[in-house]
Amino acid sequence: KSKPANKSADERSCESLYQRFYERFYKENIEIFTDGALVIEDGIIRDIGDYATVVQKYPDAAISDYSGKWILPGLIDSHLHYPQTQSIANYGDQLLSWLENYTFPAEMAFADEEHAKSIAKVFINQLLRNGTTTGFVFTTVHASSCQALFSAASDINMAIVAGKVCMDRNCPAQLQDTPELAQRESADLIDQWHNKGRNKYALTPRFAPTSSDAQLAALGELATQYKDVFIQTHLSENRDEIAWVNSLFPHADGYLDVYDKHHLVRERSVFGHGIHLKQDEWVRLGEANATLAFCPTSNLFLGSGLFNIEQANANNVHVALATDVGAGTTFNMFKTYGDAYKVSQLRNAPISPFEGFYLMTQGAAAAHQLDDEIGNLNPNTTADFIIVEPRYDELTALRISENAAFEDVFFALSILGDDRMIEQTWISGQCCYNKKENQHALA
Ligand code: GUN
Ligand code: ZN
Predict the structure, then answer these.
(1) How far, in Å, CA of 139 to CA of 199, rounded?
(2) In this structure, which topology does domain 74-367 adopt according to CATH?
(3) Is the CB of 81 under 6 A from ligand 1?
(4) Which runs of consecutive H residues, i.e. helices, occur in 50-112?
(5) Residue 231 in contact with residue 266, Cβ under 8 Å?
(6) Range(s) within the chain of domains with CATH label 3.20.20.140
(7) Any idea which fold 20-72+378-440 has?
């Protein structure tokens, strides 16, 4: 279920009360069936409930038994880069030199379509084996890299949100397009892929430093024309980056305003990071119904800073969890919450397991206005779900008792877990990954 949109001024003024509000809310709005059943038909969830009740209603159903395991909604990763699959885990740099030294070289290789196709498969397989069924994905400047990803996702009916990266300055010449080319290629990709099957398009200017005002304006025109496409970019991740943006755009009133002036701040805008925001930017993001992608493993890895989720909540800004691979250090959303928890500990405001779970399922889906399709196990949504085996090795079997509460198990797995906890990943009613058989749908 979704959290209510607004709180009273009294609640807003009192932070600890605030936290309790959330704690209460998340607990009340998750339904847990200890002996449950999920009914799927033609790729859609038909029903959910207590096993004994459900089984009576569907006497002809074929039954798969997952006793001792969990059935959870497929996980949503709200910001990551598929071309960085192979440049994950590179030593030593913070954002701007990391881009120069590792990221841009890796992205240049995507001029080769065959390379793009092969990495798209590896990438999707990594998502599947970690239980992620929807990703918000940056491709490269090459339209063909975006084609390769949508095409691979379409093979398994996976709901991917993606876009061609647009950059027309401050990066290697081979990675640059122009305002006109960015607009034309993005428009063509929208026509070809947006709302075709389960694909959705995201206009993707990489970040303000690599786009001219003319390019942002060209993309802003598309954002106005295609109201239901997504917009994804980066925002206020690193202090040197922000100083650079201020010098490149002296007429804007800060980083967010660079995008805002070009109609790129609206619902279905997803901004990566937002670590060093000014108060007026928090307010504006809330007003605009935009979303911040909180990428804790990346923020720690690049030394970018500690995301302030209390500020987001206080300003009614949607937050969704994300890996940000390859600055992020894992594809696993449980582990990503584990690092979000550690970040929040450093801020003295621990994020509860319920909130963490919400930020990778229903909370993300509601932020993106996709909760009628993904993010939950409600009837009439698409059958994207995962089977989790909590006690998958000696240590987890020791730590996690058989009748432990949901939040305890979820938390322990978020700190200890890895892809071994994911037993199966189902997409559109089809099993696309099975750990036991080490079988991926994209061979
Ligand atoms: N800012 C601009 N590009 C990138 C990127 O690829 N990764 C991250 N983490 N931040 C960025
Ligand atoms: Zn990113």
Answers:
(1) 14
(2) TIM Barrel (3.20.20)
(3) yes
(4) 51-57, 95-98, 104-108
(5) yes
(6) 74-367
(7) Urease, subunit C; domain 1 (2.30.40)
What's the angle, vertex CA 163, arms to CA 157 and CA 168, rounded to 5? Answer: 165
Quickly state the pLDDT bin for 25 (edges 50, 70, 90): confident
Residue 248 near residue 209, CB atoms below 8 Å: yes
Write out pLDDT tens, residues 339-378.
Answer: 999 999 999 999 999 999 999 999 999 999 999 999 999 9
**Residue 205, Cβ density class (10 Å: 0-12 exposed, 13-18 middle, ≥19 buried):** buried
Q: How far is the CA of 95 from the centre of ligand 1 (A)?
A: 7
pLDDT in the model for residue 28: 72
Give the whole-angstrom CA distance, residue 363 versus residue 305: 23
pTM for the structure as a whole:
0.96
- Ligand 1 lined by 207 (C-beta under 6 Å): yes
Could you tell me where in the chain the CATH 2.30.40.10 domains are found?
20-72+378-440
**Would the CB of 257 count as within 6 Å of ligand 1?**
no
Ligand with the closest atom to the CA of 171: 1
Contact in structure between 48 and 33 (CB atoms under 8 Å): yes
Which ligand does the CA of 297 lie closest to?
1
Query: How far, in Å, is the centroid of ligand 1 from the Cα of 269?
Result: 16
Residues less than 5 Å from ion ligand 2, measured at CB = 272, 324
The per-residue pLDDT for range 234-280, each reduced to its tens digit, is 999 999 999 999 999 999 999 999 999 999 999 999 999 999 999 99
Note the helical H segments in 92-141: 95-98, 104-108, 113-129
Atom of ligand 1 nearest to the CA of 103: 6
Q: Pick the residue whose CA is nearest to atom 9 on ligand 1.
A: 327
